[in-house]
Recover the amino acids of this structure.
């Protein structure tokens, strides 16, 4: 199950991965699931493994159905795949590989300006409406983002997802942009933590600004309608 | 319903309730003779995606000593608009809003399928959720860095209007004033001296609670109350500054010399956190989240001194009364826990270290307040990071799964008064064990209607900040144990009974000697078998248990070997951790903890459950074992050889590749769903980590009796532990003996 939207498919699927845990710090550290996998709602659930077998009432241990003697070499090959043999049920989880799925870069590289410019423009939009200190703070972090990007410090998945975030932001899809920021904080916190909170705030401020603008528009539409009732309104030359 | 199993399952799905007995013995004497008490496991906030809450308040019985809530068991006179309380038989008038109800137009709360229903309380102010981070800075550099990043990440997961605060500690305790100014200010406290709540509040300049100044008017959309304090600010306002503040946190600057532990003032840090919340936001949902990387080593609540050569107490030390700091430290944390619970707040403990951190002494903080306890090796592990992320996971409605400030009321038929408990922190899997006492006299007639009823009312603060009430009303038939024992027997829920008895056992183990608890458990099991087994006296081979009891002895066998009752293989902290989770999980997960699940994967068919027995360990099988705290995948010897030979890469042996993959996929699904995240062990025949599997399985073949059963299959276990077979044989002998 993948959130496949045309055009976003590769980027979306690349974010459903499982990485091994930190073997140095915890030899039995469980694998790490990406944000995408963690937030997958439902999906085909395999039968939960919760059944038990009762011990036989007469007390002797159950004789297993297949007997093999211990200490086995040499042993023949496993049963081959044939019409007759029953393959065990296949995992239905979308990604079970241990390595992050690296998609070959077939399209052009995400350009720095494609990401930074819309962000800086969004910030400019907010300047009249948001406190100066907040704008300065956001601006500082965007500068840091620019510096890190230009210095090659950001990985491909981060750059790709930022492009996606900016696209959503520009289309006023606040929740989607917010979700992408969250996925980056969860999956790539080391890379993004210094500046991502500025992007997060920018999304929030743009959202506020936009809803205020909508409210103003509704008010002014009502006023324009009122004015149009009065005769003799002239356009400015 | 064809069988009781279906009845039990349907009731659990609908009401989140599992009773040990689903037909109730009608007298007190008979109830005690049943051995297993009449009790239930209740999951008050069980996730019910199919149950939308109703947007009105519940109708209450007018009798002041009753106040039961209108439910499907009530008799209703639709013409006269009256209802009879099924608990006290009081006749009540329906409120005016209910004038239009009729047989064909019933309110939801009268319909049988709404035996569990949730109400949303519209009136009253809604307060934001509060998160107070209490952070140990005596960590290794990379550990501290990982923790800082996790905390920064959490700011993206918190709701924008939640309040957040930060206290850091090491040798000193620092309370950070959160502001949007560039200069960050903090109040520093000595870590050696405890302070009273008033002293803390005075020193921090908190003269009165910072509660909202306005009450929301009913019917109006909620305005954001002007709530905050200098130390607890809304996320949307403070996230950038707090991100920077967290990023700039340094390791505790006090140098730690060779052979010493860092001076860690956990006791005072927690005390200040509790006092801060007490003085600013009493009686609203808040979490104190303690992150610690080692034991408290100074001040009140210290658990060990700073000399490394003096180790932290073990179970042996405790048994020999050689744990210097334990009593005093426990008392300190109990005092804090009680105050926190009174204030309606909860305390989480996130302890990540290779050595113990004092969970034994601090456990009451999590246990009494309904907070979490997470134990890991380091903050720089996936186990901690993902477990922490899961705290902020959202349900099908996009709400957090955490609930606050709950009170649970249990109401029973006929008995005056209600029992009430406070649970400050709750989530959809939190499960309580409630034990009942039948009070009817022996030979008193079975109550009118032949059914007993119980109502559970949970009032709580939902994570969306709404106040809600969840009401569950259930009924079960009474029966006379003398004439209807078969009915009672058929309605026995052995799974629920096992967990409920286990909880009793673990509770006893906290204050009694280990061997005494085992003896008690054994005695109850023997009595149960004597009462409900079918046998001829003095003839053990004739002994049989009906289906509804068939798994019970096995559960008891595994419970006796479990880390909940066998403490000497674990540290006191580990035991506290295991017991903490056992005391709160739902039935399915609790059973997994008592008797781990074992599934076998092979070419012979789909994965199947197998006996937790060494005879299940076979060369051509892959085993998946789930103990709740660990997921173990074990490859049999032949599987290992096939894998070494590379058959999985050959297209004609694709089914082998699938076989290798299937348990990994199943394990992944468990790992994704479970809180806390379990450890993950992928091992094979001969691997050193195979010991995790071998120690759990019943040793039906040991070096003592390898050839006793006349077969040579399965892997021998090197232990002198008694096996299930020996245990059951002995049990049968004792059950059929007239001497017992």
């Amino acid at each position: 199950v993948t959130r496949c939207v045309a055009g976003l498919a590769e980027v979306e699927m690349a974010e459903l991965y499982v990485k091994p845990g930190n073997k140095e710090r915890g030899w039995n550290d469980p694998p790490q699931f990406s944000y995408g996998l963690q937030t997958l709602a439902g999906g085909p659930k395999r039968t939960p493994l919760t059944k038990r077998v009762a011990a036989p009432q007469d007390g002797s241990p159950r004789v297993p159905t297949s007997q093999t003697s211990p200490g086995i070499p040499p042993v023949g090959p496993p049963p081959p795949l044939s019409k007759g043999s029953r393959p065990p049920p296949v995992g239905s989880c979308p990604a079970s590989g241990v390595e992050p799925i690296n998609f070959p870069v077939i399209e052009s590289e995400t350009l720095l300006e494609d990401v930074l410019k819309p962000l800086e423009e969004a910030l400019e939009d907010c300047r009249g409406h948001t406190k100066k200190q907040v704008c300065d703070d956001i601006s500082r972090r965007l500068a840091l983002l620019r510096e890190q990007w230009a210095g090659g410090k950001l990985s491909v998945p981060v750059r790709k997802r930022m492009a996606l975030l900016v696209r959503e932001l520009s289309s006023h899809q606040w929740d989607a942009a917010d979700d992408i920021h969250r996925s980056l904080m969860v999956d790539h916190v080391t890379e993004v933590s210094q500046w991502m909170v500025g992007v997060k705030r920018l999304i929030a401020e743009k959202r506020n600004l936009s809803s205020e603008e909508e409210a103003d528009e509704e008010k002014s539409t009502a006023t324009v309608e009122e004015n149009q009732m009065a005769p003799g309104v002239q356009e400015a030359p | 319903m064809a069988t009781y199993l279906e009845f039990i399952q349907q009731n659990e799905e609908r009401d989140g309730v599992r009773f040990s007995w689903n037909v109730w013995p009608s007298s007190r004497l008979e109830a005690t003779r049943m051995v297993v008490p009449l009790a239930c496991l209740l999951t008050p906030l069980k996730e019910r995606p199919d149950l939308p809450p109703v947007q009105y308040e519940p109708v209450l019985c007018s009798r002041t000593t009753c106040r039961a809530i209108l439910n499907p068991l009530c008799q209703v006179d639709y013409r006269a608009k009256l209802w009879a309380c099924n608990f006290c038989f009081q006749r009540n008038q329906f409120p005016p809003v209910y004038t239009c109800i009729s047989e064909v137009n019933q309110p939801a709360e009268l319909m049988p399928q709404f035996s569990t229903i949730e109400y949303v309380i519209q009136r009253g102010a809604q307060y934001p959720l509060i998160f107070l981070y209490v952070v140990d800075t005596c960590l290794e550099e990379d550990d501290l860095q990982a923790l800082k990043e996790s905390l920064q990440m959490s700011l993206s997961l918190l709701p924008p209007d939640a309040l957040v605060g930060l206290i850091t500690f090491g040798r000193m305790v620092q309370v950070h004033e959160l502001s949007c100014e560039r200069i960050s200010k903090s109040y520093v406290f000595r870590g050696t001296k405890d302070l009273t709540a008033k002293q803390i509040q005075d020193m921090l300049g908190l003269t009165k609670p910072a509660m909202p100044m306005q009450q929301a008017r009913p019917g109006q959309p909620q305005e954001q109350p002007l709530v905050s304090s200098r130390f607890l600010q809304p996320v949307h306002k403070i996230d950038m500054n707090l991100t920077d503040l967290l990023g700039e946190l340094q390791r505790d600057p006090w140098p730690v010399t060779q052979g010493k532990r860092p001076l860690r003032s956990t006791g005072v840090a927690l005390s200040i956190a509790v006092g801060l919340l007490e003085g600013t936001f009493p009686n609203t949902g808040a979490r104190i989240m303690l992150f610690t990387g080692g034991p408290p080593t100074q001040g009140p609540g210290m658990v060990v001194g700073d000399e490394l050569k003096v180790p932290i107490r073990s179970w042996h030390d405790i048994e020999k009364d050689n744990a210097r700091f334990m009593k005093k430290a426990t008392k300190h944390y109990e005092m804090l826990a009680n105050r926190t619970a009174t204030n309606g707040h909860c305390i989480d403990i996130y302890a990540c270290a290779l050595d113990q951190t004092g969970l034994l002494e601090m456990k009451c903080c999590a246990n009494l307040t309904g907070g979490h306890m997470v134990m890991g090796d380091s903050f720089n592990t996936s186990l901690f990071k993902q477990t922490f992320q899961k705290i902020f996971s959202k349900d099908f409605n996009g709400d957090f799964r955490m609930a606050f400030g709950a009170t649970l009321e249990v109401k029973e038929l006929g008995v005056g008064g209600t029992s009430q408990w406070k649970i400050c922190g709750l989530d959809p899997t939190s499960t309580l064990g409630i034990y009942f006492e039948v009070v009817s006299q022996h030979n008193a007639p079975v109550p009118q209607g032949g059914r007993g009823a119980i109502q559970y009312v949970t009032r709580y603060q939902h994570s969306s900040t709404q106040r809600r009430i969840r009401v569950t009303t259930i009924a079960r038939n009474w029966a006379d144990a003398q004439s209807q024992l078969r009915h009672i027997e058929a309605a026995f829920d052995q799974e629920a009974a096992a967990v409920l008895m286990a909880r009793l056992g673990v509770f006893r183990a906290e204050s009694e000697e280990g061997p005494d608890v085992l003896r008690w458990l054994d005695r109850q099991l023997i009595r149960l078998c004597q009462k409900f087994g079918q046998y001829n006296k003095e003839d053990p081979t004739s002994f049989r248990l009906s289906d509804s009891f068939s798994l019970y002895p096995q559960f008891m066998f595994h419970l006796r070997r479990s880390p909940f009752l066998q403490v000497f293989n674990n540290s006191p902290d580990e035991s506290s951790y295991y017991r903490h989770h056992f005391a709160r999980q739902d039935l399915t997960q609790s059973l997994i903890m008592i008797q781990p699940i074992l599934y076998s994967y092979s070419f012979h068919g789909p994965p199947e459950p197998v006996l937790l027995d060494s005879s299940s360990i076979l060369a051509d099988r892959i085993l998946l074992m789930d103990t709740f705290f660990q997921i173990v995948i074990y490859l049999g010897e032949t599987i290992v050889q096939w894998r070494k030979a590379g058959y999985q890469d050959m297209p004609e042996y694709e089914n082998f590749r699938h076989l290798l993959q299937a348990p990994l996929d199943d394990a992944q699904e468990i790992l994704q769903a479970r809180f806390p995240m379990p450890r993950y062990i992928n091992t094979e025949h001969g691997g050193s980590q195979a010991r995790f599997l071998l120690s759990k399985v019943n040793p039906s073949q040991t070096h003592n009796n390898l050839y006793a059963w006349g077969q040579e299959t399965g892997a021998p276990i090197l232990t002198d532990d008694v096996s299930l077979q020996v245990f059951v044989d002995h049990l049968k002998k004792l059950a059929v003996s007239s001497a017992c």
